[in-house]
Design brief:
126 residues, alpha+beta, Nucleoside Triphosphate Pyrophosphohydrolase, 7-stranded mixed beta sheet, 2 helices
Length: 126
């Protein structure tokens, strides 16, 4: 299954969203994104998910790669992109809050497994 994640940066900080407690992975932080529908390309799916879940108008920039964790989440490919905001988040659908943190401040223990890999990758870029 293809899933997407957005790296949205502003003033040296990255946007993370906390999943609603009653959702799968509830209470965990993640990079915004979601599942790619059949027939969709990952950038198109990411743009749609950001609009549906946050009301964000976004411009998909460069790909940062595909992350996988066969032990924790078999069969999932997480396609990661840098994203430029065209508008700020307007609302939250599947999340209870958003936070802006520097890569060094990302609380690894609160992230979903594949998101933890992305955070470690982002830290290695600095």
């Amino acid at each position: 299954m293809k899933v997407t994640a957005a790296i949205i940066e502003k003033d040296g900080r990255i946007l993370l969203a906390r999943r609603k407690r009653e959702k799968k992975g509830g209470g965990c932080l993640e990079f915004p994104g979601g599942k790619v529908r059949p027939g969709e390309e990952p950038p198109e799916g990411l743009r749609r998910e950001l609009l549906e879940e946050f009301g964000l108008q976004a411009e998909i920039k460069e790909s940062l790669g595909i992350f996988q964790d066969p032990k924790a989440q078999p069969g999932i490919e997480l396609w990661v992109y840098r994203v430029a905001l065209k508008s700020p988040p307007l609302y939250l659908v599947d999340h209870e809050e958003i936070v802006w943190v520097s890569p060094e401040e990302i609380p690894l223990a609160e992230l979903l497994p594949l998101d933890r890999q992305i955070a470690l990758f982002l830290r290695s870029l600095k």
